[in-house]
Amino acid sequence: MSNPIAQRDVFGDTMIELCQRDERVVLLDGDLANSTKSDKLAAALPGRFFMMGIAEQNLAGVAAGMATLGLKPWVASFAAFLATRDLDQVRVVIAQPRLNVRLAAHYSGLLTGFTGKTHQVVNDLAIMRSLPNMACVAPCDAIEARAAMLALNDYEGPVYLRLTRDPAPAVVAADSVFELGRTVTLRSGADVGIISTGGQTARALAAADELARQHVAASVLHVPTLKPIDADAIVAFAEGVRCVLTCEEHSIIGGLGGAVCEILGERSPTRVARLGLRDVDGESGPNDALLRKYGLTEQHVTYAALELLRQT
Q1: Distance CA 114, CA 283 (A)
Q2: 241: number of Cβ within 10 Å
Q3: Contact 48/66 with Cβ under 8 angstroms?
Q4: Contact 200, 296 (CB under 8 A)
Q5: What sign results for the dihedral spanned by CA atoms 200, 206, 208, 211?
């Protein structure tokens, strides 16, 4: 996977793989199969694919019903619909009874192909990690997305899997194995620690390379699991640096930054700055323009780290 690959493409391929491995796996889609790449499974194994139409609340209810019968339903839709339009159904019929439903939340964050604020959600992790019983996972690339799907298929309980739309370079090794709750240290350095999640991890890693060119030693900790989160790893990481910068393509309210501050505030008070969207919605635009407007480019990460060090 040296060339950029989209998480949604690997989602479709991995769904075929899961269905071939496990006769209990099914996939439900909310009339977005060509966008989520669920159409790959529909073409390969049509008997395992269910097109539920533009009826997202019903989609969640049907998936819950299937889970009670011993099936392993995966649900594919946009993050904006699963985390907001479906929220009451997800809360009551999936999360509360702790059913084995995997919510594959595509088109997460800002980079959603000009869909605009109605089809974007930038506080979905804050919503989902607040639900009792709900695990929350945000892979950094297609390799990790596939590994996460293979692992999560056998997890007992509901999962929110946050997937991005566009092709992106590989960050983790090709043979990486996903373990729910485990963090991944991508770079070590004693000056500033950058903690990131999802697609923003690639930009955090690029910023660490730029900081090295400026003689600043930065550590990078990738947190693919927002819940259950590895508090011990985050505390140990923070204790090895002068200060911590959290970095996410998500609101700074309630997401990774909030989770890190909760942990460090209780267990190891540390100077922390949060980089992310600041209580705003997204909008339509080219990817680069959106990243610049909301301060998420590798240059913004670099500047934020340098400014944090200056103040520490």
Answers
A1: 8
A2: 24
A3: no
A4: yes
A5: negative
- The pTM of this model reads 0.96
Residue 67, judged by CB atoms within 10 A of its CB (0-12, 13-18, 19+), counts as buried
Amino acid making up residue 172:
V
Domains of the chain: 7-162 (3.40.50.970), 184-311 (3.40.50.920)
Question: Which has the closest alpha carbon to 62: 34, 84, 87, 93?
Answer: 93
- Tokens representing residue 178 in the block: 């996903």
- 20-29 pLDDT, tens digit per residue, is 999 999 999 9
Question: How many other C-beta atoms are found inside a 10 Å radius of the C-beta of residue 175?
Answer: 7
- Residue found under tokens 């989520």: 36
Place of tokens 């373990």: 179
Instruction: Say if CB 136 and CB 1 are below 8 A apart.
Output: no
Main-chain dihedrals φ then ψ at residue 121, nearest 5 degrees: -140, 130
pLDDT tens-digit readout, 116-168:
899 999 999 999 999 999 999 999 999 999 999 999 999 999 999 999 999 99
Phi, psi of 156 (to 5 degrees): -95, 105
